[in-house]
Amino acid sequence: MKPRKIKEDVYWVGAIDWDRRLFDELIPLPDGTSYNAYLVKGDEKTALIDTVDPTMADVLIDNLKQLGVKNIDYVVANHAEQDHSGALPQVLRQYPDAKVVVTAKCKNLLMNMLLIHQNRIMTVEDGESLSLGGKTLEFIHAPWVHWPETMFAYLREDGILFTCDLFGSHFATSDLYVTDEAAVYEAAKRYYAEIMMPFRKVIERNLEKIKDLQINMVAPSHGPLYDKPEFILEAYRDWIYAPPKNIVVLPYVSMHGSTKKMVEYFVGALVERGLTVKQFNLAKTDIGKLAIALVDAATIVVGSPTVLAGPHPNVVYAVYLANALRPKLKFASIIGSYGWGGRMVEQITGMLSNLKVELLEPVVIKGFPKEESFRALDRLADQILNKHKEQKLIK
Ligand code: FEO
Fold it and tell me: Structure pTM?
């Protein structure tokens, strides 16, 4: 992709990674991703905002050459993670006068992770600004979006907020701006769930810091830009502030059909009572879909067989993830089956320490479900319905 003009003397110079399918060797990327970097040319100085993943450093350097960039004065590193900072060493070799502009925490990380010499780095305070001549960059410290060192850069004259990870989406597209809103909403929600949701409370404070800015455009470092910023700002307000919805998330595994039979019956019982259920077979599902569902759900019910006296390993993985992502969940329960015994319930509940959930009486049975098993599942469905009614999630 060639450089793209955004505004007068402001260009997108990043790289699109159509083929990447995994991030951090953990997060599925069904739609690829992009590493957005931006060039801002003032009358006197030139700044590059963020770089790209080191695997695509040549693409960034080539884009800068295509624009005829002979000198860069500042490279703003909003975030130290390598998908944005990894091409810094190459950029600094190519542009020997460039200084890296960062928060103090970011300086430390870049020196340690990328071995960048301290003489090449200058730190900026929260609220400090840098004049490029006719273009002014204002820096807003915004910790924990996604690491402790993160900040935003605000281009005052054009009203562009460069947010790096915040508001991003892993979504490779040839469109510079959001065109397919439904597709980007899904990708941005997945991104929020996997990257930002654990820091929900801190993000509230960061949103507060930018609420009075005149934002004409949000330019994140993954996915398309938002030329209608309200689209993503409104989505974040819903994901962060709104109460959970009348949704039960049901991740499960079944080895010999007993837990599956319970899940099938239980889902029917919940739906009959007017609850929405999102069911995920952990042997098959894209774990990112489960993360997305956790953004809005009020209740999680985990379905597991008993393996070596504990939960199935796929269930352990999903419960660990749900606990780490710290969603808004209010209630939790467990359904499942065992052959001769075990401590499956204790092990799962012991992994939910981050979640402020009320544990509803689990239904764990011996062998294949029988009539009394179904009645117990009915009682659990009744209890969830009543809890959702108490929370005014359902009439
Ligand atoms: Fe896109 Fe936290 O890096």
Answer: 0.95
